[in-house]
Write a structure and sequence with these properties.
Blueprint lengths: L4 H6 L15 E5 L2 E4 L4 E4 L2 H4 L8 H13 L10 H12 L5 E5 L2 H18 L7 E5 L8 H6 L3 H4 L9 E4 L4 H7 L4 E6 L2 E2 L5 E2 L2 H14 L2 E5 L23 E4 L10 E5 L1 H4 L15 H16 L2 H20 L5 E7 L2 E6 L4 H10 L1 E2 L1 E3 L3 E4 L7 H18 L3
Parallel strand pairs: 3-15, 5-6, 5-7, 7-10, 10-11
Antiparallel strand pairs: 1-2, 2-3, 4-12, 8-9, 11-12, 13-14, 14-17, 16-17
């Protein structure tokens, strides 16, 4: 059967409707481009929502996956897995953290972080410290614990009762956080750039205050870098731009360029609270996923793509400001590196739909923000093309 967009959409009734999907089916990718079942090309400024940092079908990652699939795809974590050991060592060597737990997604990584924080308090003789404080407008995932940590009611509606012991404060006011950090709190959890809320970076001064208060009160700081990690913001990890070190950090999205991998990293003193049997993941850290991740970080490091993200991100911001800065519907352009948001004074969905018609893929964040997440390998020519198509889409959706 010859697949077309229309044919695929018409036969999708067996797939649960958990996404508002466009009537398009992607079947092939190369670099910064995707092709649908009808053969139309799209410039991908979504990157699978910050996942394909090396672009689509990167040859080194593809070859690593194929070779590993011919050798060993899966074995139990009851055995040592060489590729897992190698990737854990790479992550520890390139970060301020010491040990790694591997899973399959960002939500699972955040679940692991919540569990470890509570287990650390228990193992430290502070069993009364069970609570996590997170920030309003945050997003930490769809599983029940990560969903509870997410500070947006729209994602939680209809899924109660939520997990007890997680509460939220507004970002930016250290006094509100200090008031929330009573004797029952074991950890603070935050994103350095609130992606789903509309690409909102926290201020370095605030984050440094959070780190100071956590140190003073013996509370752990968990940094969710599921979206910001792996070079996306212009440094390998976003925390490097904030002048702090977290006690725990979570990663996923860009770690294996599209193969499902999540990771929760911790300082050794914290990680020691996890012993045999305290946590696990059947598929986490399997040889296939680890080999894909090793190939990804090898390219990332060799080409120092976080530096390219910083340079291309600055170029993209300049081009956006030049092309869109005077548009009456554009309120702000914000973000870090190649994680940028074009903030509008109205809904962003019509612009995203117009982008699709222009052959540009973007996502909506926070309702009124077009989120741009190109692959880190994006060229200046592709940036120019993307900005041109976005400008055309904005004009189509909201004529000046």
């Amino acid at each position: 059967m010859a697949w077309t967009n229309e044919a695929i959409v018409s036969q999708s009734a067996a797939v649960m409707s958990t996404y508002g999907r466009w009537p398009v089916a992607m079947v092939r990718g190369q670099g910064s481009w995707l092709w649908d079942a009808d053969g139309r090309a799209y410039l991908d400024f979504a990157a699978g929502i910050a996942v394909t940092i090396l672009g689509h079908s990167h040859p080194e990652v593809a070859e690593a996956i194929a070779e590993q699939a011919r050798t060993l795809i899966h074995c139990s974590n009851l055995f040592h897995i060489p590729q897992q050991v190698e990737l854990a060592r790479w992550l520890a060597d390139h970060s301020a953290l010491d040990q790694v737990f591997f899973c399959n997604s960002g939500a699972e990584a955040n679940e692991a972080a919540i569990k470890l924080a509570r287990r650390w308090a228990y193992a430290s003789g502070r069993e009364e410290r069970r609570e996590i404080v997170a920030l309003e407008h945050s997003f930490h995932g769809r599983t029940l614990g990560a969903l509870t940590a997410t500070g947006q009611k729209k994602y939680q509606e209809g899924f109660g009762p939520l997990v007890p012991g997680i509460r939220h404060v507004a970002a930016g006011d250290i006094r509100l956080l200090e008031e929330a950090l009573d004797g029952g709190v074991c950890a603070v959890m935050l994103e350095l750039v609130q992606g789903e809320a509309g690409v909102i970076p926290l201020s370095p001064a605030y984050v440094q205050q959070v780190r100071r208060v956590c140190d003073e009160r013996g509370i752990l700081l968990i940094v969710d870098e599921v979206q910001t990690g792996m070079g996306r913001t212009g440094t390998l990890f976003a925390y490097e731009q904030y002048g702090i070190e977290p006690d725990m950090m979570t990663l996923a999205k860009g770690l294996a360029n599209g193969v499902p991998v999540g990771a929760m990293l911790a300082k050794r003193k914290v990680a020691e609270a996890f012993g045999p049997g305290t946590h696990g993941s059947t598929f986490g850290g399997n040889p296939l996923a680890m080999r894909a991740a090793l190939a990804t970080v090898s390219v990332l490091e060799r080409e120092r793509l976080w530096e390219r993200a910083a340079e291309r991100g600055a170029y993209l911001r300049r081009r956006l400001e030049r092309a869109l800065g005077d548009h009456p519907r554009v309120r702000e352009i914000r973000g870090l590196g190649l994680m940028l948001g074009v903030v509008l004074d109205g809904p962003a969905a019509p612009v995203a739909e117009a982008c699709l018609h222009e052959g540009l893929l973007v996502t909506v964040a926070g309702g009124n923000t077009i989120r741009l997440l190109p692959p880190l390998i994006v060229s200046e020519e592709e940036v120019d093309t993307g900005v041109s198509r976005l400008a055309a889409a904005l004009g189509r959706a909201y004529p000046a």
